[in-house]
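Input/output pair, single chain:
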Amino acid sequence: MVNTVQSLDMDTLDRLAEKVSALVQMLEQTRNELADTSDNNTRLSNELETLQARFSQSQHDDLNMQTLLDERDQIRTRVTEILDQLESLDL
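Output:
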């Protein structure tokens, strides 16, 4: 009877040891996944900041381009006026 109790206790302890070992492995895996996720979040945050900076620069460049196009139209209009005035002169 004592051997049976000790055998049951050993089986119980072995199962418990296996469960603890499996839990430790699961915690290690979770820790590794958390580290990977954290690294990924950092990388994505940096990429987002870069894209936001590029977007801001693009908007600024677009505004500058529109200003230059407006100036070009003003110059074209002025040159046309000057050419018309020159044509109207009888030289």
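The first helix runs from residue 2 to 88. The mean pLDDT is 92.
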